[in-house]
């Protein structure tokens, strides 16, 4: 059974009327000097017994330290994508807004430097930002880029793009 991950992609209309998405730059020493392909949709693993949408909301809250500022009934299913690792990524989207300065990221613990036995805490994300769809494409890890196309389709059908 592959690992499963669920996420919530928050979007808003930018000043130019185009769609912007809220992404998080992945935290930890591996990502600190990277920018392209180093951003992610707030998401995380969930167990078989957990409702995927509930996991997406939980992971958004854990990673950003903020409850999603959306009506739960307005959250839309975007789909599932199998990642190169075999993990299955389930993503929902919702229109909403928040100030990235209000983000208080959760942390994770890992051995750093490697093979030293020294455990350190790092933020799950070290910053969050609103990016246009075009700016987000190169920033997102490759396996999540197709989510942007699906979001554009969904927003276009609603007449909001």
Please outline the helices and strands.
Layout: E1 4-13, E2 19-26, E3 39-40, E4 43-45, H1 52-64, E5 76-82, E6 88-95, E7 107-111, E8 119-123, E9 125-132, H2 133-139, H3 145-157
Parallel strand pairs: 1-6
Antiparallel strand pairs: 1-2, 1-4, 2-3, 2-9, 5-6, 7-8
CATH architecture tag: Alpha-Beta Complex
The overall strand count is 9
Strand content: 25-35%
Low-confidence stretches: none
* Mean pLDDT reading: 94
N-C termini distance: 38 Å
CATH class: Alpha Beta
Order of helices and strands: EEEEHEEEEEHH
Shape: globular
In angstroms, what is the radius of gyration? 16 Å
Helical residue percent band: 10-25%
The CATH topology turns out to be Nucleoside Triphosphate Pyrophosphohydrolase
In CATH, the homologous superfamily goes by the name: Nucleoside Triphosphate Pyrophosphohydrolase
Q: Report the sheet with the most strands, covering strand number, pairing sense and barrel closure.
A: 7 strands, mixed
Structural class designation: alpha+beta
Counting DSSP H or I runs of 4 or more residues, the number of helices is 3
Structure description:
- With 161 residues, the protein is α+β, with helices and mostly antiparallel strands.
- It has one domain (4-157): Nucleoside Triphosphate Pyrophosphohydrolase, CATH 3.90.79.10.
- The protein has helices at 52-64, 133-139, 145-157; strands at 4-13, 19-26, 39-40, 43-45, 76-82, 88-95, 107-111, 119-123, 125-132.
- The strands form two sheets. Strands 1, 2, 3, 4, 5, 6 and 9 form a seven-stranded mixed beta sheet that branches.
- The protein is 20% helix and 35% strand.
């Amino acid at each position: 059974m592959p690992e499963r991950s669920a996420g919530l992609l928050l979007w808003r209309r930018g000043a130019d009327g185009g769609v912007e998405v809220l992404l998080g730059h992945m935290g930890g020493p591996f990502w600190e000097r990277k920018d392209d392909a180093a951003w992610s949709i707030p998401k995380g693993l969930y167990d078989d017994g957990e409702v995927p949408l509930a996991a997406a909301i939980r992971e958004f809250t854990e990673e950003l330290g903020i409850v999603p500022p959306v009506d739960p009934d307005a959250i839309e299913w975007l789909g599932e994508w199998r990642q190169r690792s075999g993990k299955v990524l389930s993503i929902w989207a919702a229109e909403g807004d928040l100030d990235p300065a209000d983000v208080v990221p959760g942390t994770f613990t890992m051995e750093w430097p490697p093979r030293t036995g020294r455990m350190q805490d790092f933020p799950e994300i070290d910053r969050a930002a609103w990016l246009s769809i075009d700016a987000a494409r190169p920033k997102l890890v490759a396996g999540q880029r197709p989510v942007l196309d699906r979001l554009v389709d969904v927003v276009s059908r609603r007449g909001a793009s």
